[in-house]
Amino acid sequence: MAGQAEQDYFPADYASGRTHFRKAAAARGFALTAYLNPHAKGPAGEDLTTDVAIWGDRAAEQALLIMSGTHGVEGYAGSGCQLGFLNDPGFANPPRGLRIVLIHAINPYGFAWNRRVNEDNVDLNRNFVDHSVRKALHPGYEVLKDAIAPAQLDAKSEAAADAALAAYAREHGVFALQEAITQGQYAYPGGLYFGGAFETWSAGLLKHLLRREFASCGRVAIVDVHTGLGPYGYGELITEEPKSSGAYARARRWWGDTVLSTKNGESVSADVTGSVDGAFAQNLLHADVTACCLEYGTYATHEVFKALRADNWLHLHGDPLRQDAKEIKAQIRRAFYPDCEDWKELVWARARSVFAQAIDGLMEP
Ligand SMILES: [Zn+2]
Question: At what angle do helices 139-148 and 155-172 cross, to 10 degrees?
Answer without folding.
Answer: 160
